[in-house]
Amino acid sequence: MAFTQSSDLLRHQSIHTKEKPFTCEVYDKPFSGSSSLHVHQHIQTREKPFMCEVCNKSFFEPSTLRKHQRIHTGEKPFTCELCNKSFSQAWTLRLHQHIHTGEKPFTCEVCNKSFSQSSTLRVHQHVHTGEKPFPCRLCNKSFPSSSQFLMHQNIHTGERPFTCDVCNKSFLNSSTLYHHQRIHTGEKPFTCEVCNKSFSKSSNLLTHQRIHTGEKPFTCELCNTSFSHLTSLRIHQHVHTGERPFTCDVCNKSFLNSSSLQQHQRIHTGEKPFTCEVCNKSFSRLASLRVHQRSHTGEKPFTCDVCDKSFSQLANLRKHQRSHTGEKPFTCEVCDKSFSQLVHLHIHQRIHTGEKPFTCKVCNKSFSQLASLRIHQRIHTGEKPFTCKVCNKSFSQLASLCMHQRSHTGEKPFTCEVCDKSFSNSLQFLMHQYKHTGEKPFICEVCNKSFLNSSSLHTHQRIHTGEKPFTCKVCDKSFSQLATLRIHQRIHTGEKPFTCKVCDKSFTQSSNLRAHQRIHTGEKPFVCKVCDKSFSQLATLRNHQRIHTGETIHM
């Protein structure tokens, strides 16, 4: 090693010879150089002869003053040769270089964990000793490191001295500000070597890597459940204690963690801070935005192991898997009926409670399901979004379209076991079965008349209530049945959709066509019980019966 001055060489040689020719007269402590002795003497006398001209702060040594002055000048003379980052002090550069070399020269003797800085090792050793040498005088809470202690004091003072230049958000410490600024710059300097995913914080990378390693270092002492995150363990422990420490100021609802509370509070504030860049739709939760974005990308990352069907959400995959396993984990406490999905159980329970939370704003009719309300609203809007590709006929319900399509395919999938008659839809099939059993399960509470299905009962009840909910837009005439309204509307439109194949005469109603066709067939299905005379129409039979009863016909 070479030196420009002989005095520097002599000082250096004392390192090898371990000679310390300069001694403090007060404490008898030896030093290798006179400058070191002078600094020591200043410490004993508390003299700080080197003063900063800018802020009047004093120092024991001129070298310490020079380092301090760089705060004011912004000078950073020590530059990393690998990344060109500059530092105001040489030791800070040496610490930084450990990031590139991966060197961690300071090792804990207890657990062999290594660190790039000796100060970090000392703080870590407090984990083993339990020592917390920095106590807060206000609340008696103690901390293992001075930096943690200083940050804690800001809680009492309310001070947040580090402010973001972009959004003016303030922070307790500089490291938190530094991490926050990456939100604005988009910098993600920490990259996973397995999947190349990048992160803005090294701690997030370490947590992510556990996905690949399967490591779960945090274990619950009560039930031995392990977690990859310390925060997940802490939240889990509330399950055992029953503690929900985070409470909403508006509705007093409690939560296990602060993030759940923050999400909940957006219900009250209406805040939706997460916006889709494609369609500008906003969401109250980041997770909801990510799920929504898959509607644009078409991404379906969750795949069924049985049938390879893919889903955009994990919850939907789990629901789907129950179709293979037959699992129905949600059971009604009233009737023990089980369901594969919780939402289906909630809908079912409304049968027992009679709850109908969804109300039509037009006619105030209520429904137990939102889907039923939406279908009903199409009566008022006239919307028919489901169209047959064969004949272009439109329907308000998908089920109605499916049933209609069978008129083209001829499919009749529902077969009666008694008479082998087949039907194209399940409702016709069920009503047919009642003919064999004689059952009419739907009874009018006013007159006790029974019906095969609920719709017939509902239509019948309008006789008693006088309700006529279907109104003609042309002449304002009202009807108790939608079918009757449609027949009436043909008066205004002139439509006659039912045509005789023999003579091409058209009719507004199918019943009128059937009556007309008897002219061609000669069929007379209506027979007088008194004289056995037959008629082609029921009205003609009724007129004839008055001959026997003596009833006068008023013209």
Describe this entry's structure for a reader.
With 555 residues, the protein is an alpha+beta fold. It is 43% helix and 14% strand. It is built from 20 helices and 38 strands. The strands form 19 sheets. Strands 1-2 form a two-stranded antiparallel sheet. A hairpin with a 6-residue loop joins strand 23 and strand 24. The chain is rod-shaped, with a radius of gyration of 43 Å. The protein starts with 5 loop residues before the first helix and ends in a 6-residue tail after the last helix. The model has no long low-confidence stretch (mean pLDDT 85).
Topology:
Elements: H1 6-17, E1 22-23, E2 30-31, H2 34-45, E3 50-51, E4 58-59, H3 62-73, E5 78-79, E6 86-87, H4 90-101, E7 106-107, E8 114-115, H5 118-129, E9 134-135, E10 142-143, H6 146-157, E11 162-163, E12 170-171, H7 174-185, E13 190-191, E14 198-199, H8 202-213, E15 218-219, E16 226-227, H9 230-241, E17 246-247, E18 254-255, H10 258-269, E19 274-275, E20 282-283, H11 286-297, E21 302-303, E22 310-311, H12 314-325, E23 330-331, E24 338-339, H13 342-353, E25 358-359, E26 366-367, H14 370-381, E27 386-387, E28 394-395, H15 398-409, E29 414-415, E30 422-423, H16 426-437, E31 442-443, E32 450-451, H17 454-465, E33 470-471, E34 478-479, H18 482-493, E35 498-499, E36 506-507, H19 510-521, E37 526-527, E38 534-535, H20 538-549
Antiparallel strand pairs: 1-2, 3-4, 5-6, 7-8, 9-10, 11-12, 13-14, 15-16, 17-18, 19-20, 21-22, 23-24, 25-26, 27-28, 29-30, 31-32, 33-34, 35-36, 37-38
